[in-house]
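Reading a protein record of the kind used here takes only a little practice. The record below shows the convention in full:
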Amino acid sequence: MFSSAVAAEEPITPPVQVEYTQLLIGGKYVDSASGKTFPTLDPRTGEVIAHVAEGDAEDINRAVSAARKAFDDGPWPRMTAYERSRILYRFADLVEKHNDELAALETWDNGKPYEQASLAEIPMFVRLMRYYAGWADKIHGLVVPADGPHHVQVLHEPIGVAGQIIPWNFPLLMYAWKVGPALACGNTVVLKTAEQTPLSALLVSKLFLEAGLPAGVLNVISGYGPTAGAALASHMDVDKLAFTGSTVTGQAVLNLASKSNLKPVTLELGGKSPFIICEDADVDQAVELAHFALFFNQGQCCCAGSRTFVHERIYDEFLEKAKARAMKRVVGDPFKKGVEQGPQIDLEQFNKIMGYIKSGVDSGATLELGGERIGTKGYYIQPTIFSNTKDSMPIATDEIFGPVQTVFKFKDLNEVIQRANASRYGLAAGVFTKNIDTANTLSRALRVGTVWVNCFDVFDAAIPFGGYKMSGVGREKGIQSLSNYLQVKAVVQHLRNPAWL
């Protein structure tokens, strides 16, 4: 039924060794204060890859102290912006040189296809770092006029110690989205990695040190959310917090920040993105793009086009072709050439997805395809498609974060706009049409942070990304991301007998 490469094959041995499993604090790799470690697992098998230092509140304290010292007394914020940019450029060059090694480690720890990591994600990481390196010496303030004899400067200053918490679905890309702008603006960083995927951040940070990043400017703590994550969010000496993850956890992070020192928080959270296919669409092209919009990265993408709205005129044709495309999807060992879909990240996520599939069946939706586990080892799930889904069903309202596509029928633009916007989320949307008026109408009416027209998942470095409603606060990437890491200060000086105002 499915083009599956899982079968009974032995997992391919990853072409990389795990070298860094300790915490990075003050420019050195060290054990956790407690001496505890935790296992990080291979999603292909559920077996242990390595044991990683388990950071907790004491380690967060050590890391924040190192970051504070590096900001208050160290060279980084006092360094010329040009020299900071040179270090970021050198780092990007080193990452590019180690592309294959980093991609292999990312695939091993996360389960994403190696070709995706090596050909798309690591090159994008490099592009992002070069983008922020280019910004480092172009951040400047203003001189503004005043109604009187005053010289007024508006300064943009680094905010200080930035706490950052990243997710497991795109570990290195989220590292770049967070660390790049923070360092370009002259801040220091304490980064808490996801407990499911700690390995690639520890390795890539070693390359940062090789590039000349001063000790303490970047500190990396692996550990769990309720311990290390909560300690970072509530720390009184952290000046700014950035989080990417689920909406529920984002609410907890925001609460901890507000109860501590009221540090500003940016949040990039969950989504339930509509993908709207209009009646004038080329059905074959629409099927392929909708397939990519949902199934990319095993469906573990916050902006996945998981609500596929199809005009009633082409609905039946689309559904049959969407099923045929999903049946051809190659699921298997992500290190194998040609594999499109690897395993889900872990058993917890696997069980969550399977629970939603059961919920869809129990609620009366039609399971058109898939819905079962593939193989007996690892966390592989068949590409799954539902039809006849009501907008109120959990599979239509909740973020499943897995390879589950729900296909809906609509009659006209007013109807689909109302239904698409009837969500607590507002992260992204896709529109597929040949009509420019239709594209303009939808792109302005949809209450989301990103609208992709006749494309999807375009994440260029300069394009801002973030959500409306419960999909987050603030924007990542682009020039907008710099404001997250800058304070604005007005300096007003009295002028005596000025020649001009």
